[in-house]
Amino acid sequence: MGRLHKKGQAGAAKAYVTRTAAIKKLQCSLADFRRLCILKGIFPREPRHRKRANKGSSAPTSFYYAKDIAYLAHEPVLAKLREHKAFAKKLARALGRGEWSSAKSLEEQKPSYRLDHIIKERYPTFVDAVRDIDDALCMIFLFASLPSTAKVSPSLVENCARLAAEWQLYVMHTHSLRKAFLSIKGVYYQAEVFDQTVTWLVPYQFTQTIPSDVDVRVMLTFLELYQTMLGFVFFKLYTDAGLVYPPPLDTKKDESGAGVGAFSLQEAKPAAEVLTVKKVKEVEVEGKRISAKDVRQTIKSIAGQTAGDNDIEMQDGTDNAADEADEEFVAHPSHSNPEETAALPTLKTLASLPQSKTSQLFSPYTFWLSRETSRPIFEFLVRSFGGRIGWPATSGSNSPFEEDDESITHVIIDRPLVVKENETEEERERRRRRKYVQPQWVVDCINAGRILLEEPYAQGNTLPPHLSPFEGRADAYDPTLGVSVDDAEMDDEEEEAASEAEAEDEEAAPEKAALMAAAAAKDAAALRAAELEAEAAGVDFGVFEKEARKARKKVHVAEDTEEPTEEDMNKMMMSNKQRKLYERMKHGEKKRSSERQNLEQKRKQLEKEKKRQAKS
Amino acid sequence: MDKPLTAEELDLIRRLQEGENPDAGYDPYEPTVEWFTGKGKEEIMPLSAAPEPKRRWVPSKWEKQKVMKIVRAIRQGRIVPNKPKTASDKPQFYNVWGEEPANQPPPPPAPKPRLPTHAESYNPPEEYLPTEEEKKQWEETEKEDREREFLPQKYSALRLVPAYNQFIQERFQRQLDLYLAPRVTRTKLQIDPNSLIPKLPSPSSLKPFPVYKSLEVAHDKGRTRSVSISPDGTWAASGDENGVVNMWEVVVGKVVKSWKFKGKVGAVEWCPRTDVCFLVVATEEQLHFLIPPNLPTSILVATQAVLAPSQLPPAPATPSPVKWQSTSAAASTSDSAILIISLPSNSGLPRQVAWHRRGDYLATVASGEGQGGVWIHQISRRHSQAPFKKVKGTVQSVLFHPTKPHFFVATQRYVRIYNLAEQKLLKTLQPGIRWISSMDVHPLGDHLIVGGYDRKLCWFDLELSDKPYKILRYHSRAIRSLHFHPTYPLFASSSDDGSIQVFHARVYNDLMTDPLIVPLKILRGHQVREGLGVLQIKWVPKQSWLVSAGADGQVAVWCS
Fold first, then answer.
1. Could you give the number of structural domains in chain A?
2. Has residue A276 got a pLDDT over 90?
3. What is the domain extent for residue B313?
4. Containing domain of residue A440, as a range?
5. Window B:105-124, CB contacts with A under 8 Å
6. pTM (predicted TM-score)
């Protein structure tokens, strides 16, 4: 006889614990448990049989893996949370007694935890971390634009803004932005970092307020994790790109609204060297410190070169040098087949793939932002693709050039066309030389991967629709394609028929009856009879034939739907499981196709209306 | 005797109810009288006259030792007063991924949110904009049930786009999903759904099978419940609920002979013997044996000898409740029954007549109670017996095995197989059907099909298991009748949805190959009357033709 098995000692009953049981086991509050789950990335699991996992009860509860909870029990952060609880009690006690000095010393000894080990655990490799920064970036960009309140401290907002700027600087520096999309929610950006596509959403520049139905504590806990994670990710990204992290912030520039420009990217060098270089190259002119960088920049602006900003230029130079230093792959022809030389890709050839070309899309152009366009969006977009951009002082300081700069090729403008009365000759000349485009042009160029014609996007024109670069499904509706030809023809025919019917409504009844007969005729004999009848009634043969053809088409369509095909019959031999799967797949397919048809229908309607308007 | 309560008593009750002091005169807020404390009553004299101890005014030695300990620690630098608050020795950010990663697999990454489509654009193509109805519908549906969380909108310029008011809520929802939603990794099936449909041989390669309706024989009123084809395949007999039985030729459809009975006709069945020719008609509590007209003399004589022998066999020892009455061969005509078997009273209308293949035995299933309503009649001995004393459940249908002395009995839920020779139960099949309506056995005897009112058809391999080999559900209404073709590899099922399904069913002799079932054709042509469709179907023995009797009073012949 085998061992007796007791119920609830093995299997699902042991593998899962409910949330209440988990909290009891960890001896912490629900809030602490939630914080731990968020930080450690532990989420509930769905057992295969809820009843078996919960001792026969089917009450709605959430389950966690018992192993996950056991793993949480050893978490250093949990110990810190307990310490914090004791600290809070001590502090409350001290404050209650009015012992200010001991409260102060307690406050100084406040326990705090670090999340480094959690980052390392959750993302064992760097690529894992990069794959998961989408949500982190969304949150950081959101909080960077929030006003500080009692719950959202100013230092938090400042830190988020700093992280957001660092990310933008990195993307601009490496030209890794691939796609952008102006949606009604905000601007979607997609960058390619370490072969991972990173997509993030940035809200438009408006003051957001946290609504009351949102639990800020949850968001702040996530934010705590995200700030640490992004810090580590950026550190690695910056150091791998040969830059200093964190990039130093110029407070004066920041206060004057320079935005991203307040940070300066510095190349990482041994510390001593940097110091000596600074000492040598910094000269004081009229009480202003002028570095070598400034000098170079002035030279460049005088020369009127169109490449990107200073830092990027420097970086490019070093890149080229590195490339030259790269060992060239020397092809040794094989003995058997001397003509065929191995054309293996080297690092250099891989780097010069067309991808790099599109990432420098705007490099020959210089843009000027009009006052009403959003500076952070377009500065980021244009500079990521190698363009130069300037803006008026009302959009922030630190513009690299002024409005009357000769090198400006495009003006991004978003206001209706107004004829200016008192324009000077110089202004008119400038207006003639520059191209005035609406902001959508920039994004559409990026998504198309080439410079589009400026004409449809010119100031005051009605814009072509802005399409999402992320629409991926092969069978989805494609608005760029025209309406299919035969459909259009059929529509025309129908329309004609309708108009004819309207026009000849008062025609004699027998003719109509004959036509009806033709429509109803199914086989050849009946058709022949109908033809004779129609002739007797005095219907034109052409009209009759048309009617008959239409009727045949209709009958054909009806037959298609009516007669079960071989496949339909074979469906009954499917097993229940297969049938359900099949039905589910078909359901999805049908839903998509109906969506698609709905869109096509609407489009046809719109086109018809347009045509009618054009006629009248 | 009512004694009214006085006002004081009422007040007392109210006080007790409200939990107050029952005494009305009690005042809980009397001013306190200070007896021992208060002004002028302070105690001036000490309680004891002992002198003040020294420790009250000499500095504590132990306190001094403790302070000195701290002072020494400060001097030696072990305690740093007002230590500057630095986070820790480590820098805030460093290369976490510097050392080798742990070899444990990373936790499953969170699913990425869906990417925006054209509809989310600030300037979408016009066809994406919702119509008035769509807008209304969107607003009326609950927030959780909406297909999209936003309504597409079109702005003519970027500067006109307002802030999205659900931005923070959506971020928050995403975070709730991240830490509260159970996560399951699913492999997404990237297959064409059509590849799930089994590949079967084309019906056109499996001809012949019936495809079209060649002729119809109409019964004027009443549903035709039953139809039967003579063993040579030339004649058909059909009976309706009005009591009319028509005999007609299968090829022509002309009614040759018509009989009229009292009450409904429950079943009509030809005798499977070829040396004799007669048919059995089951009406209320009676079985009528009819000889068709215009038979060749030799067959007529043989038939009369079988049904009305000049020498009656000896009567059984125990008197049977079933009466056999026959008219003499000379007096018999084709107008009336030559032999009538009267079933016991209360046995009701026999729903089914099943012949043994030799044509000597026939079994009837009646709807009445007692012995499950099953009787087995033996013609040669003119004897009837009830094989079961008691049957669990009502018997729906019975069948003789084509080769072995086995007997199939279908009750409402189960099919039982009995060995008649040994008189014992062999097997109980469990089709899993709620209510069995019909069954038929393959002519080779190894396979059984069972149909039910719950639209299911079960195929049993009798060698294999007592669970079905295949369950098919394709009719939209109850299955009424099933029949295997005696020679061709065909079977058909009819249903209350008015359709007949024809299948190819090839059975292999080796035990390893599964039977091949191919749906061939759906025959439609019968009308559904009062929820009833095609009530019985029969194959024509030597052709691949099908005869069907419908609730609309039509009997149709389907030809290939």
1. 4
2. no
3. 206-559
4. 304-321+355-457
5. 106-107, 109-110, 112-113, 115-118, 120-124
6. 0.69
